[in-house]
Amino acid sequence: FEALSLALANGFHDLERALIDPRLETLRGDAKWLQFLKLTEERQQAHQKTLNPDLLRLYLEQLREREAPATGATTAEIVERAAARRRTVSARIEGGGVKRPEDAFHAASLLVESDRPAEVERAAALARQALAGDPDLLAARPLVATAVDRGQMLAGKPQKYGTQLVEIAGQWKVYDVDPEVTDDERA
User: Distance between CA 112 and CA 54 in Å, rounded?
Assistant: First the structure.
């Protein structure tokens, strides 16, 4: 708990990580655990207030739509909502709305699904920016890989990491992977 207090003092605010980290399992039965969770949640809420509210809202909107697609929404409506979110994100980026690593992550998460190479390239750059700004932002790592692979696929080139799937004759298959990329590079 002394180390956790030090982490909080140094800006730790990742409640989800605290809840799933197996190294903390033995602490969860202790009465001090609830106090740690409370403080972490307070810090997380305070941290979220420092983020670009539009990018956070759009990111959460996208997550909700993925988890529970709108009842009765057509594919065209879902695609149009995603495109509208990307237009808003691009405007926020142009307006200097990406100030924190999480802002870059949220923007990249929204742009990476595009079929436009320039937007996907921007997603890769933003994901790298997020990771460079906060190496502990672990979700940015697979986002970098996804953006790079999606960009390669859109350019008709083999992907590097193997994150992209394509439907061929009704079956999903891994899109071509560059055989010269080693597993060490992928890791």
Answer: 17
